[in-house]
Amino acid sequence: MDTQLKKGFLEFCVLASLIQKDSYGYQIIKDVSQCIDISESTLYPILKRLENHSYVETYTVEHNGRLRKYYKLTANGQEHIQDFLSGWNQIENIYHYIEGELNHD
């Protein structure tokens, strides 16, 4: 898969992993890896970008004597997901156009 395309999908997969519950980096990697490969070196810049755009908020919790950083989906993040999903028809149209041209003889 194209790197730029994958990068865009990863952002929404990370946001989606936070819909049901707040989470931390390692758990987000485990959750998202069920549908698309992601590494720590990829995740943390995405999380930072999402935080800078106010799509997620962070807080820390002590766990086994160490502080663990949790990420929480914001209302802006939920709206960002909805915007992505409402644009999905256009993505499907692009896919079908490309597929049709490829198979057009």
Automatic annotation (TrEMBL):
Supply the name of the protein: PadR family Transcriptional regulator
The domain of life is Bacteria
UniProt-listed SUPFAM superfamilies: Winged helix' DNA-binding domain
| Domain Transcription regulator PadR N-terminal positions | 14-82
Lineage, opening ranks: Bacteria, Bacillati, Bacillota, Erysipelotrichia, Erysipelotrichales
Under Gene3D superfamilies, the record lists: Winged helix-like DNA-binding domain superfamily/Winged helix DNA-binding domain
Tell me which InterPro entries the record gives: Metal_resp_DNA-bind_regulator, Tscrpt_reg_PadR_N, WH-like_DNA-bd_sf, WH_DNA-bd_sf
